[in-house]
Structures are given as structure tokens and as C-alpha cells.
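Researcher: Good morning. I'm working through a list of sequences from a screen, and I'd like to move beyond sequence-only analysis. For each chain I'm collecting a predicted structure so we can compare shapes side by side. This is the next one on the list. No need for commentary yet; just the structure.
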Amino acid sequence: MISQGSDNSENVSQWGNLLSDISLRRLLIVQWDRHQKIALGNVAGRLGFEVTICSRPSDARNLIDGTSFDSILIDSKSYDDELKNFLKWISSIGKEKPYVILAMKRENVGDFPGLIRSGVDDFLFVESKEEELITRLQIMESRICQRRTDLENFAKIKRDHNRYESLFLESPEALLVLKNRRGKVIGVNRAVKSVLGYDGKALLGKYMSLIFPQIFGKDGHATSGEVLSGSTILKAISYRRPDGKHMYLDIMMSAIPWDSGYAVMMLCRDVSWRAGEEESKIKDSKDQALARFAEGIGDEFGDLFTSLGGNLSLLESAEYLNEESQDTIKCLQQACERGREIIREIATVRGGRKPKMKNKLDLPDFIRKTVHFSLFDYDKILPVFNFEKGLFSVMGDEEQIRQMLNSLVGNAAEVMSESGTRNGRIIIDGLNVVIDEESPLPLDVGDYVHLTFKDNGPKLMNSEIDQIFDPYFSRDKSVRGFGLSRAASICRLHNGYIFANPKEDGGACFELYLPANSKNDFQASGERSNDLALRVLVLDDEPHICSMVEKALTREGHEVFCVSTGKAALRAYDKAEEFERPFDVLLFDLDVRGGMRGDETLAQIRAKNPGVKAIVTTGYVDDTVLENYLEHGFCGILTKPFRISHLTSTVERLGHQKND
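Model: Good morning. C-alpha cells for this chain:
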């Protein structure tokens, strides 16, 4: 133990430079006899330490609980259970544990191993002089400084580890760590599930050849030399997820240090939007080419059929024609009429039919009425409407927008009916959206109405997406026509955009965007809308009669709906009333095969609406109904065969009487 008579005053000046780096300030001295504690405290105080002295380990524990000490100097002469418990408690403090120096006699050196295990950091012989005390203080200071440095470095490493681990785990791109030159997965982040569709833990230990055979060989080794070197970028790799969804990925690889060697970090980024942009450009180019082709075909064949039809009319009036020649001319005229019909359909593809008159359309009510009427022949198909409150109105040609909706809904209904879908549903959603400059859609910036038409019919395949809006495309090879190409053309004419998506759970999803109504961007067309247009319900069991009447009246701007049975006529009439789009005129054939006659059907309608206006048509001139048609509720009569001009004038005269 340090002698109380030691001369320290001379040594302090000699050790000044040596002790200048000691920054330790708080020292606790425990279990020393009174004179020795005072002497040791004086030495430590002169060296710049803030010294606290206590007599027992229990007192030291209370002091340490309330104050932070850098070191403790404790005497081992009473090395008993109390001291053992105290040293055990000191060790339990952890990284904030003070540096412990134990003072002991030289003859007790054999106790070193047990004392070290008990948490002692250094030893001081009781017989040591002041020089040795200073040395021990220097050693203590050096070790404590090193401990602090190590703790700070460890804390920094831990912070960096947590930071980079968070960057790795939370990255929106899928990140995988692959072992060495092989594609064995040894690390994954959370985005692997959302991007690649695999549970990350399930991939650990697997080889990437199972997922990307075009990049990694079947033996698990990368097939690209650049990949082997650990630095490569692969653009727009086609990838199909386990759930069947097709997408495109940019894949980047780079070598990173790993254990005693290196590993390959693989980053997978979903760039389907970019591929979609490129596909959209290709589609727009195809649409433009198709429109130009349709324009040329429409002009050329329009002239051709005009010439053929005119010459056939002249030939038909020749006196020398026999009956066979006249029948041949009639067949040719029918063929010409079909050609004219096709030319009119081609006009919708070429975009030649501009909207006649843009009216403000409040979509929720307009869509409900149109869809319900389109589906009145499909009892097992239910429409479901989900419209955002305050849905924007749009400006458009009412008749063309109705045709577009009819095409979309009718296509879904036909597909579901032909496939035998039970409990068919067409879900129609409407939302207000804003298209900004960063949108991948080929639309001008502004407000739009986003409509989606989803059904639960047969799954729309990816191979069909690029063809679904093409003229004459159909799953049923026996069906021909312009199908959804008419809907796409009308949407484009209204500065909108339409596309199709396959649903993961089956069915098809059509999405379309229409510009929202804006007071500043609307300027009415110079053409007037047909305010005198009539809605006509035709009942006739002869398809060619229905076709002729529909063409004749539609050409005059009227809306015609044809049915072949009295039961269908009753349903159509009720549906029209339900949707608040009633028929103005009924044109009923008197004799209908396989069901109710025209007068019987009218009688049921008149029971609901006595003021209905109806015209009777028949080829049987001696029928008693014709003699008393007014008594049977008819307002007019057309005897077959009748002239088109007579048909039109009779319908219009009767239909417009309410305006007189």
C-alpha cells in the first residue's frame, strides 16, 4: 500500500507531461484503511481526478447507482462474499461498467484467474510506490479510452448495419444475393414477393435457373460472361410470375464482398409501364395505319358500289328483262346494299363520322339506362354500377356514346352467354381522375372520367389483348363484323382512350378515359341535332322485313328496335318505359308465327298505356282486323308490300302528332 510519508510534491511536476493526456476525472476508492485512503486520495487528487471514498461495497453500489464513475479502486484484503457479489453486480452493468482495479498483496497472486473471471480489469499491489500507481492509472486510461473508441465504433457499425439492412429490406425493387458465380439465393428482400411473386424464404437455397432460365443455365451457373464478372444490365426481360401475370423487368447485377469471397447482388425492377408505353405507341401506329387503309378502301369501294347500284337500277327498268334476269338484279342489289352497310361500318374505323352534336351527358343515369336496355335480352346477366359521387359529366354525341357502351356491354354479354357463365355480372365503375404530364397514357393533360367494365366470363388471354379492337376479330370464327373496333373508334373520336386488361380471377376488363366537361373547351358543332327523331318498336317474324324497316327508318335518323315475338315486344316495351326512354311508335305485324298476333300483343300494351300509337302491317288484306283496325287500338295501317316513302311518312306523321 502507498506509504503516507511518500514525497509526491516533487513527482507531480516531473509527471506533468506524462499525465497531460489523462482525461479521467471520476475515481471511486473502496475499502481502504483510513490513513491509506486519505493518502491515496491526495495522490489521485493532485493528478486531476475527482475522488470519492467509501468504506464498503454496499456503499459503493449505492454511489454507482446515482453517479457515473469511470473507474473503481477496491482493496481485496476483505475478499469475502460481499466483495464477490459486488464484483458480480459490476459485471452485470454491461458496456457502461466502470474500470475495476483490485489492490492486493503479492502473496495472493494465485487468486488472479478467479478474480479476472469475476470482472476485475487490473491489479495493483498494496506495496506499490507512487510511480507504479501512475503507471496503472495510465494503463487504465488507455484501456478505458480504447474501450470507449471500440464502443463508439461498434455503435457506428451497428447503425450502418441497420441503415443498410433497412435499405436492402425496404427497397421497392426486388433484391437478391446470389452466391459467387452460381445463382444460388442466399439473401432476399421483401419486394421479392410483390415484384417476382415468390415468397422470399422459399427462394433461399434455390437456384435462379428455376426463375430466369434465359439468364442462368440449368446447372445453376450464369450463362452470361458479364454476369460472371458481376456487372451487367439486362433491359426489359420478359417474365411471367407464378400467378400467371406477365411483366417486363430491368435486371442489374454487381459483385459485392461476401464472407471470404464475393457474391452477386441482383436487382429486379418492374418496367412493365415502359413496355406498355412502347406497346401503346405501336398500337397507335397500327390504328393510324388501319384508319388510313379504311379511308382508302371506303372511298374506293364507296364509288364502286354507288356505280354498281345506279347501273343496276337503270338496268332494272329495262323492258326486255325476263323474270330470271329481274331476280338476278334484285340479288345483286341486295349484295350492293350489304356492301354499302360495310362501307358505313368502315367509316367508323377510319374516324370519318365525326360527332354530329356534342351534348352534355350526365354519365351515371345515361350509362344505367343504356346498359339495362342493352341487356334486356340477357336475363341471367346482372349489371352492377359503382360511380363516384359527383362524377364529371362529358361532352359527346349521345348516339355514338350509346353505341360505344352497347358494343362493350353486348360483347361481354354474348361471350358470357355462349360460354354458359352462371350468375353473369358486368361491373361498371366510374371515377374522376387527373391526367398529368407523367402519366404513361397517350392523353392530354386534364380532367377525365375513368370507366371500367369488368365481367366474370371466360378469361381474356394475353394473346387476345392486341387483337381485341381489330375489325372482324372474334373468338367465334363463325362471327364476323367490326365488333369492338367501333367502340374504340368512337372513343378516339371523343379524344378518349380505351384498352383491355385480363383479370387475374377470370373475365375481361375494359378501361376507357373520356375528357371531362369543361366550359372553355366546348364549342358546338354547326350541325343541328335531330330533335324530331323517333323511337320505333318493330314486331315482325320475317328477318328481311325487320332489316329493311330498320335501315329505312335509321337512315332518316330514327332509332329502331326489332323483335320477332309478341313476348319479346312486351319485354322491350316494359324495359323502355322502365329506363324512361319509351317508344314513340309501334309497328306490329298482324300475323306472327309461333306466338301472339300483333293485335293481341298491342291489347296487353294498351292495358298499361291506352294512349300508345301503333301501326299494323300485314299481307292479308281480307283480315277483319284491317277493316276495323281503330277498334283494335291501331292508329294506322300499312299493307304489304309497301313503299319505303309510305313507311317513313306514316311513322313520322303518327309519331309527331303529339307535337301538333
